[in-house]
Amino acid sequence: MVDQVQGIFFQPNSSKSYDANFVWDAAGSLVLRFDGNEVGYSSSQYEIEPKLGTTHRVIHFRDGARFESADQEVFSRFEATLGKRSPLNLVHWMESRWRFALVSVVGIALFCLAFLEYGVPAVAKSVAYQVPQSVRRSISEESLDWMEQTGFLDDARVKRIKVESARAAFNESIQLVGENLSPIPEYKLHVYRGEQIGANAFALPSGDIVATEFFIDLCENEDQMVAVFLHEIAHVELQHGLRSVIQDAGVVALASIVLGDISSIAGLAGSLPAIALESRYSQQFELEADAFSGTILEESGIGAEALETILIKLHKGSPDLSAAQFLSTHPSLKQRVDKLRVIRKAND
Ligand SMILES: [Zn+2]
Fold first, then answer.
1. Do 52 and 182 belong together in one domain?
2. What is the pLDDT of residues 122-149, one digit of tens each?
């Protein structure tokens, strides 16, 4: 049986329409008749628009002409026949699937990258904030114990006058944060001598903040100590320590924390001492903590310069380099100093 398809034909670049009909042969070639004309098209010279609901079926010809038909049935029949018989159509089918598959793979890869870049930190943040203080406390105590046992922190006596000066600076920092201080972490200062780790100050998720005597000696004044304590308080307030632990642990660990017991984060906290001791936070976290400290320093009248000066002193091994020379070889520190200068300018 030869199907004759009735419809309307539009010539290229013309809105004029003709009643028309055509017949298909088995290879998909068609002969179109309209207005006394007869035109032949091979199967590669036209494309059938995919079927959309119950609308008319449309054929687009390569030369720009168009044919529309309301005869859905004959199109379906033709497509079914062509689908089975035509090797060309199979190639087209595979090609379209290949493209679809490729686009899917690229899409999934992009999604995974975006999830690692933005999703994991976002989930880590929300998880870190939900960790109960009791868990933060036990993680932090274990870290401190470990540092004492391994000798990173020593129990040699620190001169009382130095401990008192650090405590005064610490209390001032807490007061400067004022009502913005979140009520959960219980802030506490620990002073160690620091033979092993030198001038250092760091925070643990519980609110325990450690300063070494070498750090106290390095500060030229109380303002610089306050500046660093504010920076460390920011790491606690923003839970940078736990967020780093969770982010470093990866997606599988993250899923097990989210889907299981949030306290299981304690099992991952082995990396916390290194993160705290070596200040192994991401640059973004350091910048956030600097901004927190710098803004409060500016508002209090102390000035963010105190943080800038002590940061350079803390990082600078050799004292004979000028600050500018030193910063030029430390781009991440330079970025931090530059941002602090922006905060200072904004408050001028
Ligand atoms: Zn830091």
1. no
2. 888 988 898 999 999 999 999 999 999 9
